[in-house]
Write a structure and sequence with these properties.
Layout lengths: L10 H10 L19 E3 L21 E4 L6 E5 L3 E7 L4 E7 L1 H5 L2 H13 L7 E4 L9 E2 L11 E4 L2 E4 L1 H11 L7 E2 L15 H4 L6 E5 L3
Parallel strand pairs: 1-2, 6-10
Antiparallel strand pairs: 2-5, 3-11, 4-5, 4-6, 7-9, 8-9
Length: 217
């Protein structure tokens, strides 16, 4: 699905085919040049189509989107990082987050919730949160220095350290006031799912990317 990583020759066709099945136009996508930051962008109508056909046209230096505009599809791309979908049915408003370990360290979840409160008047307890597939603690081996960053989310096994990325982001949601019952985690590991998912850890930097999309109807 990426226009930058992996084999991009069929990416536009792939986007078209996938989104057409949902009744969406791939040319309306709003995409980001993700940099593993804590940056969040409020997407408006004049952003429609940014990055849909050309990577250089993507919204720069952004790893999360929010919007209250209808029929405006937001997209992020992952290959082990965690995609997070947010939906506030009361406002209504949505958000979409690309959360790798660096963005998680930069508290991108808290930043996204804060901007949704500022721009839309959202209440965190009203927001439904869905996690996409990501590398899980069974496979996400990290160095010992990560203990200083994620003290409660590091698992030690056989003298090795593993990061529970989903747990770290879930903690940010709960600390920000989200309801536990409103967080949905399928617990799918991209590293384990060799036939189903791209994985940066398994395949290297040149691997393809999966696309996560959310839109208000």
């Amino acid at each position: 699905m990426s226009l930058f990583y992996g084999d991009t020759t069929q990416s536009l066709n792939n986007r078209d085919s996938f989104l057409l099945s949902l009744g969406l136009d791939y040319r309306d996508l709003v995409c980001a040049k993700q940099i593993h930051s804590g940056g969040v962008k409020y997407v408006k109508e004049d952003d429609r189509g940014r990055g849909a056909l050309n990577y250089d046209a993507c919204v720069p230096d952004t790893d999360a989107f929010i919007t209250d505009k209808k029929n405006l599809p937001l997209a992020i791309f992952t290959a082990d990082c965690l995609s997070i979908f947010l939906f506030d049915p009361k406002t209504p408003a949505i958000g979409l987050v690309h959360a790798g370990w660096q963005s998680t360290r930069e508290r991108i979840v808290a930043n996204t919730l804060q901007l949704m409160k500022k721009e839309f008047g959202c209440h965190t307890e009203d927001i439904y949160i869905g996690f996409g597939p990501a590398i899980r603690s069974c496979c996400y081996e990290v160095g010992g220095e990560f203990k200083d960053i994620f003290s409660d989310e590091i698992i030690q096994k056989n003298n090795k350290y593993y990061l529970d990325l989903a747990k770290a982001n879930k903690k940010q949601f709960l600390d920000s006031g989200a309801r536990h019952d409103n967080i949905f985690d399928p617990q799918i590991c991209t590293f384990c799912g060799k036939e189903e998912f791209f994985s940066f850890r398994r395949q290297g930097k040149g691997c393809g990317r999966s696309m996560s999309v959310i839109m208000l109807k």
